[in-house]
Amino acid sequence: MGPIYEKTATSPVNIAVIKYWGKRDSVLILPTNSSLSVTLSQENLQSKTTIRASPDFKKDRLWLNGVEEADVTKNKRLQNCLRETRRLRKEYEKKLCEEVGAENTIPLSEYNVHICSENNFPTAAGLASSASGFACLVYTLAQLYELPVSDTELSKIARQGSGSACRSLFGGFVAWEMGSQDDGSDSQAIQVAPKDHWPELEALICVVSDAKKGTSSTEGMQNTVATSPLIQHRIKHVVPERMKSMTEAILKRDFRKFAEITMRDSNQFHAVCLDTFPPIFYLNDVSRAIIRVITEYNSSNESGELKAAYTFDAGPNAVIYAPRENIPEIINIIAKYFPGDIDNGNEYFTDPYHLFS
Ligand code: 2P0
Hints:
Blueprint: E1 5-12, E2 14-18, E3 23-25, E4 30-31, E5 35-39, E6 46-54, E7 61-64, E8 67-68, H1 76-100, E9 112-119, H2 129-144, H3 151-158, E10 173-177, E11 188-193, E12 201-206, H4 217-227, H5 229-251, H6 255-275, H7 285-299, E13 309-312, E14 318-323, H8 327-337, E15 348-351
Parallel strand pairs: 7-9
Antiparallel strand pairs: 1-6, 2-5, 3-4, 5-10, 6-9, 7-8, 10-11, 12-14, 12-15, 13-14
């Protein structure tokens, strides 16, 4: 038996406040608009990945949530992430050979890997499981390979696993800049602000359903780009301005502005889904009732300040952003209006996000 090299890491989920929806290149995963997200805490929602490399392994193998994938060579996105990280490792090995000699350089780039990855939350229920999963794959490989590269550099590889994964390499507030190059060299994630920039902001996740979603994001966004006139308006005339305003709102910790843009962007994302032909429905009756309850809660506030913001991804589950002081009140309201509707019995939890390290 030869040696086994092993690394384990975890990655958090991110929830977009400016949504990514649409690709201009579906192999490199280049988006049609920039997006911005908040990274949630790792304890409640995370992917955990262990990767082993050994000269004895006969082929690359993958276990997702304990089940082995039949043929990893068919998983193009995984192959792309593996190929790109191995390429960087190969370059690093060349450098190591020059510095410390070939006899002291482990040729990890040539070894097959065994990858075990699991989520502690429902997969594919619109809770960004592919984001944390691919971020974790690329981050763990980078650790195993000891790659001397920045997280922004790694974000370009994670992006090729799943677009939103590039944002999960950072904590706090993260922008995915769409870039303009055809080779994807400037389509990358950057941190807008670290999580301790705005420690009062919390996210409350309401699991409306943990069933697998009907239309995958990948398929859904392709259909939207192919059929929706509204998405063109969003790409050209809405998102560029919103990215600037949202960045300003975050830097100034302006919850009113943050909340309004968050809700408007969620609404527009679901509007382009409805504008897709045939239409895509991610919200259900409970989701829409949550929108009404939060709208009512905000308008009942005499000062005119917004107290909470809802956002929904490609599924019916709500994420509610609010200053920490409002969270107990929001939980009471949700519990009152939705005593049994949410996740087979009232499952919701506060989730103070924190930096990925
Ligand atoms: C987002 N979503 O910005 C948006 C909002 C869903 C709604 O990113 O095809 O799973 O793997 O690049 O990243 C979901 O898209 O799609 C997503 P692929 P991904 O978070």
